[in-house]
Amino acid sequence: MRLREKAKVMDQETIRRAVTRMAHEIVERNKGAASLCLVGIQRRGVSLARRLAAAIAAAEGVEIPVGALDVTGYRDDRGLRPAPPEPPGETVLPFSVTGQRIVLVDDVLYTGRTVRAALDALVDRGRPACIQLAVLVDRGHRELPIRPDYVGKNLPTSSRELVTVRVAEVDGRDEVVIEEPVDDG
Prior knowledge:
With 185 residues, the chain is an alpha/beta fold. The chain has a single domain (9-76, 90-154), classed as 3-Layer(aba) Sandwich (Rossmann fold), CATH 3.40.50.2020. 27% of the residues lie in helices and 29% in strands. The chain contains four helices and eight strands; from the N terminus they run βαβαββαβββαβ. It has helices at 12-29, 44-60, 113-123, 168-171, and strands at residues 3-10, 36-41, 66-69, 101-109, 130-138, 150-154, 162-166, 175-181. The strands form two sheets. Strands 3-2-4-5-6 form a five-stranded parallel beta sheet. Strands 1-8-7 form a three-stranded antiparallel beta sheet. Helix 2 links the parallel strand 2 and strand 3 (66-69). Helix 1 packs across helix 2 (44-60). It is globular.
């Protein structure tokens, strides 16, 4: 399936501002950074979690631990969709999740199925005090009752469209674009 770019909705600067704002919201809602850990969902959620941690460190002077979570084995659609073009990465949690305030970080929230898988993966590793959700883009179309606590941008889309987040650490540039299938017929 061929895709064409319909619109660029975020560039490097708007992503930077969104991450900075979300970092401040996380600290404010949690009344500081004590017991906070950020866990990025592989792949781009990990880069965003690291950026959030850096923004919190810059604002509060506190280093927040960051982990990475591969949810592949927890997905409910294994075998129903094609394998991803790139390997997802691995789970690396350099801290115990038990008793921690976990902020789960992902690039795009769509149906909620990836987040459901991430919740299962986290709870298999311990019992956090709470789990919050931060996403760069919320595009709607939920299939599960999952709602983000922190959102960089709400982006209403049609289910036919694809929201692509690119981060410099993985893709060489920062941007969010809406793409749509091209009918070659």
